[in-house]
Every structure is written in structure tokens, then in C-alpha cells.
Amino acid sequence: MCDLLTILSLSPYCRLLFVDNEFSTIKLKMEDSSGRDHVVVVRLGAGYPYKAPDCCVDLPVAFSISWTPQTNIQDIYNQVLSTLESLKGFWDTLDEIDTKTWVLEPEKPTRSATMRRIAIGNNVSITIDLDPRHPNMLPECYFLGADHVVQPLKDKLNSNVHLWDPDVGLLQNLKDILEIDFPSKSDLKKSDFTMDCGICYAYRLDSAIPDQVCDDPHCAQPFHQACLYEWLNGLPSSRQSFNIIYGECPYCTKPITLKLLNKPF
Ligand SMILES: [Zn+2]
Ligand SMILES: [Zn+2]
């Protein structure tokens, strides 16, 4: 308890949010050096101080306290703080993406979320998955959209990958390598990129989004996998070969294919 008061009086970056009557659950709000708030919940179990307390923080990496019976709450605070600081680059990178681009998923990213799906244009987006320990390295990238739009982006990524500069932010690197500008938040609305499924007229179907897009450049209508699967299955003219179903787009009647990757339904 004395430790707790010491921290609260010493650090202007730590605030007590909650403590229960037994002083066994302590909830703190900690601010990192970039001004981001983090909620830390410390539970001192029955074995305390011989057993390490539980410490919950929303982090993209595993975290546990290194503990001896001499470890006090001040040490816990310091350990959490140094972990938060070690992730500064990761969060700075994602904060820049969240403020400057249209992030389609996750809808409300938590501090542990390493993935972002970013709108590039109408029905085209890139999904990146960042390594929290190496936020300046080229992340895993996946594109979503019609083939004729996605293929040139994949080609750019492959041919320009040597231009990746770890000293430049991720967003700038993506712009340079893909030779694109991300749609700005000031000119466009999120609904400009989140087009509803052409079959069920909804955006979300359970948790799925319309990620199958008609390849015809004039149509480019998106569909949910499950909706398109049902539609194509109901067509007498459609056929399946291995894991690909061939049929016609419900909108423009041009040929459309559906790859059954991992059956999401
Ligand atoms: Zn649908
Ligand atoms: Zn179509």
C-alpha cells in the first residue's frame, strides 16, 4: 500500500483508477512518453508477496513480471513502463496509420492489435500485419480487391521492395513502394470504401465483410464469400473444379470465380 502511494505521488504519469477494499485489485492508468494512456490491472493473489501478482495490460507481446518476494509495486510499475516504452515505435507507427488513413478493420483497434486493413480506393484495400518488435521492417501485406487492380499493386510491391527504408515511417514506405497515395480522411468518408454486398445488401455478415469482388472493371461489385457461394451453387450453369467455382456475376453476368480457401461458412 505504501508502495502504491509512493508511485502515485512520484509519477505524474500514473493515476489510480480503482482499488478494492482488500487492496488486492489495483487498476492504474499509465501514460507512456508519447502521451498514450494504458490501463494496468494488478491482482495480488493469496500467495503475495511470495507469488507474483497477475498483471494485465493490453499489449501485442507476452508480458509477465519478473518476480522475487522483494519485488514491490514500484518495481512492477517500472517493468510495465519499460515494456510500454519498448513498444513506442510500434504504437507510433500504428497511430500514424490510424490518424492519416481510412482503417477499415479492426473497427476499434485495441493496443494489442497488430493488423490493419487500410483503404486504398473503392473496393481495394491492403492488410498489413506488423511485428511489434520490428515495426520499421516490411510487414506482411495482403491485398483485397479485383484482380486487375490488385495485380499491379502486387507487382509494384515485388519490384520496389528494395526501396524499403527502415528510417522512414511505414506509411511513407508503403506510399513509395506501391506508388500510391492513401485516400485522405478529410476528403472522403469511410462509407466511400465499405461497399455493401451485392447479394444480401449488408456490409457485415456475422464477422465477414464483402471480400469477393467481380473482376469486370465496369462492375467491381463486392460480395460476401458465403453469399456468392450460395448464389453460384444455385446456378445451373456454374461448375466446380477442385476448390474453384466458376459462374456468372449476379450483377453484370460476366464470368466470376470463387476460390474456396478455408471454408468460412
Ligand atoms: Zn452478402
Ligand atoms: Zn460483375
From TrEMBL:
<feature type="domain" description="FANCL UBC-like">
    <location>
        <begin position="90"/>
        <end position="185"/>
    </location>
</feature>
<dbReference type="Pfam" id="PF18891">
    <property type="entry name" value="FANCL_d3"/>
</dbReference>
<dbReference type="InterPro" id="IPR044037">
    <property type="entry name" value="FANCL_d3"/>
</dbReference>
<dbReference type="GO" id="GO:0006513">
    <property type="term" value="P:protein monoubiquitination"/>
</dbReference>
<dbReference type="Pfam" id="PF11793">
    <property type="entry name" value="FANCL_C"/>
</dbReference>
<dbReference type="GO" id="GO:0043240">
    <property type="term" value="C:Fanconi anaemia nuclear complex"/>
</dbReference>
<dbReference type="InterPro" id="IPR026850">
    <property type="entry name" value="FANCL_C"/>
</dbReference>
<feature type="domain" description="FANCL C-terminal">
    <location>
        <begin position="194"/>
        <end position="259"/>
    </location>
</feature>
<dbReference type="InterPro" id="IPR043003">
    <property type="entry name" value="FANCL_d3_sf"/>
</dbReference>
<dbReference type="InterPro" id="IPR043898">
    <property type="entry name" value="FANCL_d2"/>
</dbReference>
<dbReference type="GO" id="GO:0036297">
    <property type="term" value="P:interstrand cross-link repair"/>
</dbReference>
<feature type="domain" description="FANCL UBC-like">
    <location>
        <begin position="5"/>
        <end position="87"/>
    </location>
</feature>
<dbReference type="InterPro" id="IPR016135">
    <property type="entry name" value="UBQ-conjugating_enzyme/RWD"/>
</dbReference>
<dbReference type="InterPro" id="IPR013083">
    <property type="entry name" value="Znf_RING/FYVE/PHD"/>
</dbReference>
<protein>
    <recommendedName>
        <fullName>FA complementation group L</fullName>
    </recommendedName>
</protein>
<dbReference type="GO" id="GO:0061630">
    <property type="term" value="F:ubiquitin protein ligase activity"/>
</dbReference>
<dbReference type="InterPro" id="IPR026848">
    <property type="entry name" value="Fancl"/>
</dbReference>
<dbReference type="Pfam" id="PF18890">
    <property type="entry name" value="FANCL_d2"/>
</dbReference>
